[in-house]
């Protein structure tokens, strides 16, 4: 019986005894009644005390060999993990994983070696977490954290069937340096994609203008009419400009049928007009319609003089006259004596025979200036 029960029993006994004494005094009991009541009251008090006493445990700690050894505390079945590196889909970036691992032991297999339930539970949780994070991109850590929280919220057995393990309070993060690198890489990728689209857009525009709109003068005229369908007269006036534009877009000369309407057509030099000599590179030869700085193009005689220079023959040498006569005879054979005549007059004026002067088919260079 505990001390609380003993106190209640004593209090109840005293109150009952006082009540019996008061009743005996009021009723004026005879002596033999007082003796009987006192004996009955004492017997009842002893019986109540015996009934309220706790039964003795035969296996209680007081009957053991070492009754003073304390009872061991219950085993804690949780462990806190902090900043554990877990793999991501990128080899150089890791998640930082933190959680509280909880477990419940299962019946150990027969003939199995002893094991630590805490270590087995932590290994099982990390294995499940790593299998999920290794397929996730590092810059999507917040999404991976919520998915991992749901995955680890269920008690599952480990691979050996020794414990049931789960995790709570899951957090997943990247280091600040890795997060900064990923932000920079994302900005670079976005800028690169934007620049690639802009470059492709410009290239498509150039190809459209060169290969479709400005492929020839007719295409340029049709394109211009679609843009200015109410300005037909203005389009006709701009045919020369469109012809020049389409020819320049394809690195070609203006077609002969449009040469007469090209603005500022080239002016052929007079026979006695001095001509400019152009430096190396042959810019006048490459652009027959225009000379350097808008000047008149070199005459055929200038071209022949450059040919003599390339052959190493001075213009005043006798061989230049021989070559001029050979060119003149060949030009006569094909019916193109106009330019060849100017060349012969410049480089071999003494070689003009009298019979050729009286020939009615001969060409007067003063009346027909060379190109």
From TrEMBL:
<protein>
    <submittedName>
        <fullName>Uncharacterized protein</fullName>
    </submittedName>
</protein>
<feature type="region of interest" description="Disordered">
    <location>
        <begin position="259"/>
        <end position="301"/>
    </location>
</feature>
<feature type="compositionally biased region" description="Basic and acidic residues">
    <location>
        <begin position="267"/>
        <end position="279"/>
    </location>
</feature>
<feature type="transmembrane region" description="Helical">
    <location>
        <begin position="32"/>
        <end position="48"/>
    </location>
</feature>
<feature type="transmembrane region" description="Helical">
    <location>
        <begin position="7"/>
        <end position="26"/>
    </location>
</feature>
<keyword id="KW-0812">Transmembrane</keyword>
<keyword id="KW-0472">Membrane</keyword>
<keyword id="KW-1133">Transmembrane helix</keyword>
<feature type="region of interest" description="Disordered">
    <location>
        <begin position="351"/>
        <end position="371"/>
    </location>
</feature>
């Amino acid at each position: 019986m505990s001390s609380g029960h003993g106190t209640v029993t004593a209090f109840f006994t005293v109150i009952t005894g006082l009540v019996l004494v008061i009743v005996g005094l009021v009723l004026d009991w005879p002596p033999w009644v007082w003796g009987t009541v006192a004996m009955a009251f004492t017997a009842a008090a002893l019986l109540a005390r015996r009934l309220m006493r706790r039964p003795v445990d035969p296996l209680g700690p007081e009957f053991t060999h070492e009754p003073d050894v304390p009872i061991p505390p219950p085993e804690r079945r949780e462990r806190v993990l902090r900043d554990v590196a877990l793999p991501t889909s990128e080899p150089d970036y890791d998640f930082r994983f933190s959680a509280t691992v909880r477990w419940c032991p299962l019946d150990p297999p027969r003939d199995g070696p002893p094991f630590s339930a805490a270590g087995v539970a932590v290994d099982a949780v990390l294995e499940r977490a790593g299998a999920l994070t290794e397929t996730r991109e590092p810059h999507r850590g917040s999404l991976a954290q919520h998915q991992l929280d749901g995955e680890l919220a269920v008690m599952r057995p480990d691979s050996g069937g020794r414990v049931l393990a789960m995790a709570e309070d899951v957090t997943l993060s990247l280091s600040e340096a890795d997060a900064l690198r990923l932000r920079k890489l994302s900005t670079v990728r976005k800028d690169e994609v934007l620049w690639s689209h802009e470059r492709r857009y410009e290239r498509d525009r150039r190809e459209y203008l060169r290969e479709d709109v400005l492929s020839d003068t007719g295409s340029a005229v049709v394109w211009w009419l679609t843009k200015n369908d109410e300005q037909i007269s203005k389009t006709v006036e701009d045919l020369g400009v469109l012809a020049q534009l389409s020819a320049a877009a394809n690195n070609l000369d203006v077609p002969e049928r449009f040469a007469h309407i090209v603005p500022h057509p080239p002016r052929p030099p007079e026979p006695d007009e001095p001509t400019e000599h152009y430096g190396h590179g042959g810019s006048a030869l490459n652009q027959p319609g225009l000379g350097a700085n808008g000047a008149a193009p070199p005459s055929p005689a200038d071209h022949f003089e450059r040919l003599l220079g390339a052959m190493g023959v001075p213009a005043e040498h006798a061989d230049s006259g021989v070559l001029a006569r050979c060119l003149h005879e060949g030009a006569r054979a094909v019916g193109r004596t106009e330019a060849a005549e100017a060349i012969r007059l410049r480089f071999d004026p003494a070689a003009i025979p009298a019979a050729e002067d009286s020939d009615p088919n001969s060409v007067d260079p003063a009346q027909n200036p060379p190109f």
